[in-house]
């Protein structure tokens, strides 16, 4: 109503006729935290440890640079000829961003914790990540937490400690979700990763190190991509010949000979014998020489005999003290136009970048949310830019990954299927034994509804706590849930079957609640759940005519 009128004239009064409404919040806005080539908008390093929103790969490369230029390392193989040594790089962020956008990703946030020149150890980097997560907690738009290069930059203890901190934040804020990688994902024996046992057991380590949590989901294994490592064409090539470089063993042996000469009383005989055996076996196993070690191991008191045996091994194997190949010291740019340059390029193209799947999965979440809805499980979806997983997991092996009977810490598997490509074949959270929060889609749908309704309800704070306000709030929420039901997010033939909203005196509140300023609204939703197991039952039918 207008204030009291005192001056003659015409006045305008606008009357609101539409009820308040709930606006749906974003569901797939990830933050990527890791090392980048640079972090510069205007002044060098001005974006370090800062939360930066981007919308495209081009914008990322403009602000944070591209991939690290690796030094080319070649090796001669007696069987395969010239081979490429895959770089053990820890700078995975640029490749991860390519995977994110290729798989449907959109707007996201980047936090650079350092550049490629950073030599900080695992503990220091984890400390920076913790600091950055504090900044992330203050940004309301973020809904996914991703650490694409942590498998390379952190040791295993810090790696899982970082995820615990991220999960704690998700539980506290209740509006975000953590996509978790396994620390290892390219073993030679899958059973080593699944069965309980030694410390190199990736799955057991994850389950032992991270609590069962409805706000996180883990994926295994890592994926081989169509991306190739970037190389510095101006750097000198390292080329190892077919001979074995024994210089390290020679140094150890010379030190051992000195100890043998000094040990005239033979007090350290057993210790010297063990050290000698280790040196010789390193050489013998490398080239599979069937030498009899017994006479030499038993005569460790003779330094001359030890040295003679070592020289015999070197002569028999044709080993070299420098072991340099023909291309060592040359630059790739100087080889352009030659046959060997084309051969090297073919080797580079055949060597895929291997990445943990979290960045690609963030893109899948975004794509599924935009095309189907956040209530659709991000599974049975093909991965773009992926040649295949590093491990081929079969049904029997997935049994122990998908269902954890002890703690419910399910691991979602990425698998290849003939004629279908590489698919995400799991949709469970780390709370897989819970009937309420077993599925990723259910948890993330509730996140969306809770956050959307919370924001819309803030306009009623300090309004009169009476029936007029209650009916507005109830109608607003019911209209929003009706929209979700019509879109397919809620199960039920009628709205009454799909959801309910209750608010009112003696319904959700007592008179004491009203006196204490509380307005309590109860909301129930029958969220749709994925058909994880489709069972087709067949039987014989008796002939009737």
From TrEMBL:
| Residue ranges of domain Tail sheath protein C-terminal in the record | 434-538
Q: Which InterPro entries match?
A: Phage_sheath_subtilisin, Tail_sheath_C, Tail_sheath_structural
Pfam families named in the record:
Phage_sheath_1 (PF04984), Phage_sheath_1C (PF17482)
| Domain Tail sheath protein subtilisin-like, chain residue ranges per copy | 341-430
Family according to the record: Belongs to the myoviridae tail sheath protein family.
Q: What is the name listed in the Swiss-Prot or TrEMBL entry for this protein? A: Tail sheath protein C-terminal domain-containing protein
Q: What is the lineage of its organism?
A: Bacteria, Pseudomonadati, Bacteroidota, Flavobacteriia, Flavobacteriales
